[in-house]
């Protein structure tokens, strides 16, 4: 059996002052956050970072926020992708009709070179913004790489968003070029987006060029076709523009559920270093591996999945709906070695009695990644039973903010169901008390106490960093506060309890919502649960649980009692909700996270803004919570 890359890295780390090879992983983690310079020197050496000009240091020595990474260095993300000749397939595009398209490494470089030349002729230059309104297809990867190769700044949205939602993100960037698709596949239908493309062009007056992917032209448009911009242009080897380490690579967007989406800026060198570390060391990814994580351009996993190219792996895309068999089909067709899905997808597979390893050829699969929400112990057990010991299950936690992860699976470290195996190297993450003390086996605030390379260089249109500091550093000056409740166990594993901005504070006792919901959701009649807490007049506190139920199930007194009993037994009597209410739906972000804060605001009578409504998968469901709050207030129980 091949030695995991992490074990090989441990020997490199030892040569830089790290613990002796064979030491417990906890010792390696402790060294990685104690001696940042030595650790990241070892990472960049082991992962073979590509520099046009080597940096003079790992950091400039400043504390957060404002620490600069790899000062003096010059590089380009795309230079690292094509740093050495590679044979075989670079990108595979699947769609729900069963069509598969492949792009070789040679073809990928030629297409990127050709599109970069077209963008240059259209006037795109270093620092300009190019935006993509695209489904998860190979063209989106080519568009990003071509943009980045010029030192221009990329931002993307999936065509599952309507034009208005994309505009709330794109217009703040004043982009000079739009690369857009005419439509996408969804549940056996072709969703035409030509009108949305036209609306984007009308709403972005800064545009100097538009490139349309697809057979349907924009009516009355002077837009270029993808074929004229790429296929009909000369390709071949090219030299990406060398940029400073901290030069903007892309802008990702916050969910927009608590205000207009914020543009989060990441750097070339910071992203390359962090993604190489994550994928090489913790997903054990190598050249020739087959990497598919279901995502859209709206989610940071699209950006992280691109990191497979940095490792020489083949990256797989999917244009279609993630129906209960669709992603397992892609895993079989693509002989996927590294598969990423959401806990909700795994739950849906379990609920229809799917048997993945028996019904699909998954013999190539080595790693199953899972993120977006909490992977419950029950679902983890099901996955392990179905896939067997040869597949490592890596439940991870991280965020768009750092376009990476904080904790997840670690080769050689056991993963207990319901827990995340360990904090990743270089991530100085702790559960803190209100007194700024690190807690063990107790719930605390997720904080990062040392800088990471992929932390944002700032927010877009935030020249004095006021909004950036307020988002992460205002509550605990000099410390990154992520907004989650977690427990770091005595074994070094991590349990995520839910968002701290949706904290339940009943009778002075703070509680996370995830534990309460899991107790209810493990009942066969309950599909999903959401718990919120609201302060009410006269010092009261109302903590309702909203549930959606399996087909044909009604919320009667018996089921209500079962839910209460499950919470009492699994969590504690103080966690039992005041009311259990049948809801028509639980709202989520596009990535599947439950939205406690917008529900709390709706119950308080606060309306959704247009920007917020575009960030919720079912904005119509918010009417139910508004009406529930109205009835509560009519009884004189308003907060």
Oligomer: single chain
Q: Between the first and last Cα atoms, what is the distance in angstroms?
A: 61 Å
The low-pLDDT segments are none
Helix-strand category: alpha/beta
**CATH class descriptor of the domain at 503-634:** Alpha Beta
What percent of residues adopt helix (DSSP H or I)?
25-40%
CATH topology of the domain at 503-634: GMP Synthetase, Chain A, domain 3
Total strands? 33
Shape: globular
Which range does the strand content fall in?
15-25%
Contiguous helical run count: 21
Radius of gyration: 24 Å
Sheet with most strands: 7 strands, mixed
Strand order, sheet with most strands: 3-2-15-14-16-17-18
Supply the CATH superfamily name of the domain at 503-634.
ANL, C-terminal domain
Rounded mean pLDDT score: 91
Which architecture of the domain at 503-634 per CATH? 2-Layer Sandwich
Domain Acetyl-coenzyme A synthetase N-terminal: 25-78
Domain AMP-dependent synthetase/ligase: 89-452
Protein name: Acetoacetate--CoA ligase
Pfam families: ACAS_N (PF16177), AMP-binding (PF00501), AMP-binding_C (PF13193)
Structural description of this entry:
It comes from Rhodococcoides kroppenstedtii. This protein is of the alpha/beta class and about 650 residues long. Among the domains are: about 1-45, no CATH class; about 400-405 and about 415-500, Luciferase, Domain 3 (Luciferase, domain 3), CATH 2.30.38.10; about 505-635, ANL, C-terminal domain (GMP Synthetase, Chain A, domain 3), CATH 3.30.300. It has 21 helices and 33 strands. The strands form 10 sheets. It has a 7-stranded mixed β-sheet with strand order 3-2-15-14-16-17-18, with helices on both faces. Helix 5 crosses helix 6 (about 140-150) and helix 17 (about 515-520) packs across helix 18 (about 555-570). The longest helix has 17 residues, at about 105-120. The chain is globular, with a radius of gyration of 24 Å. The termini are far apart. The mean pLDDT is about 90.
């Amino acid at each position: 059996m091949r030695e995991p890359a992490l074990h090989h890295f441990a020997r490199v780390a030892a040569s830089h002052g790290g613990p002796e090879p064979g030491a417990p992983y906890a010792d390696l983690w402790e060294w990685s956050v104690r001696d940042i310079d030595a650790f990241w020197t070892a990472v960049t050496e082991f992962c073979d970072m590509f520099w046009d000009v080597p940096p003079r240091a790992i950091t400039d020595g400043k504390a957060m926020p404002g620490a600069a990474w790899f000062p003096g260095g010059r590089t380009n993300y795309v230079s690292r992708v094509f740093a050495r000749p590679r044979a075989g397939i670079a990108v595979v595009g699947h769609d729900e009709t069963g069509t598969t398209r492949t792009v070789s490494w040679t073809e990928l470089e030629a297409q990127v070179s050709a599109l970069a030349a077209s963008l240059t002729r259209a006037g795109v230059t270093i620092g300009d913004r190019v935006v993509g309104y695209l489904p998860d297809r190979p063209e989106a990867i080519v568009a990003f790489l071509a943009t980045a190769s010029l030192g221009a700044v990329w931002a993307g949205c999936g065509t599952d968003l309507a034009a208005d939602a994309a505009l709330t993100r794109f217009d703040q960037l004043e982009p000079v070029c739009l690369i857009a698709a005419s439509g996408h596949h969804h549940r056996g239908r072709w969703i035409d987006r030509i009108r949305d493309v036209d609306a984007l062009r009308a709403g972005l007056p800064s545009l100097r060029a538009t490139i349309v992917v697809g057979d349907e032209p924009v009516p009355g448009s002077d837009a270029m076709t993808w074929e004229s911009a790429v296929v009909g242009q000369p390709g071949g080897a090219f030299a990406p523009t060398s940029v400073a380490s901290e030069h903007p690579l892309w802008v990702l967007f916050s969910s927009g559920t608590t205000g207009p989406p914020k543009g989060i800026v990441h750097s070339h060198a910071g992203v390359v270093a962090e993604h190489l570390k994550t994928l090489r060391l913790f997903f054990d990814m190598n050249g020739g591996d087959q990497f598919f994580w279901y995502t859209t351009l709206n989610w940071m996993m699209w950006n992280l999945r691109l990191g497979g190219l940095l490792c020489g792996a083949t990256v797989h895309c999917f244009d279609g709906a993630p129906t209960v068999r669709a992603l397992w089909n892609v895993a079989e067709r693509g002989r996927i070695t590294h598969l990423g899905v959401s806990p909700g997808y795994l739950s849906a597979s379990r609920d229809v009695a799917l048997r993945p390893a028996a019904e699909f050829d998954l013999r190539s699969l080595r790693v199953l990644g899972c993120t977006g929400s909490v992977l419950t112990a029950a679902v983890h057990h099901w996955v392990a039973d179905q896939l067997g010991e040869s597949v490592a299950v890596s439940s991870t936690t991280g965020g768009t903010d750092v376009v990476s992860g904080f904790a997840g699976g670690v080769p050689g470290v056991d993963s207990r169901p319901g827990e995340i195996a360990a904090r990743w190297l270089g991530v100085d993450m702790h559960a803190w008390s209100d007194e700024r003390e690190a807690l063990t086996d107790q719930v605390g605030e997720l904080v990062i106490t040392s800088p990471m390379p992929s932390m944002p260089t700032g927010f877009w249109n935030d020249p004095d960093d006021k909004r950036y500091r307020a988002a992460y550093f205002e509550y605990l000056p000099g410390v990154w506060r992520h907004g989650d409740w977690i427990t770091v166990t005595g074994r070094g594993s991590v349990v995520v309890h839910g968002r701290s901005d949706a904290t339940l504070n009943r009778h002075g006792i703070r509680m996370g919502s995830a534990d309460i919901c899991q107790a209810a959701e493990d009942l066969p009649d309950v599909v999903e649960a959401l718990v919120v807490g609201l302060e009410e007049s006269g010092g009261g506190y109302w903590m309702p649980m909203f549930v959606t139920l399996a087909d044909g199930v009604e919320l009667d007194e018996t089921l209500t009692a079962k839910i209460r009993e499950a919470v009492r037994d699994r969590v504690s009597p103080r966690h039992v909700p005041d009311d259990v209410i049948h809801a028509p739906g639980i709202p989520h972000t596009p990535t599947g996270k439950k939205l406690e804060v917008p529900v709390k605001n709706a119950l308080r009578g606060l309306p959704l803004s247009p920007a917020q409504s575009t960030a919720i998968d079912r904005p119509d469901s918010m009417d139910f919570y508004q009406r529930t709050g109205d009835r509560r207030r009519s009884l004189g129980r308003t907060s």
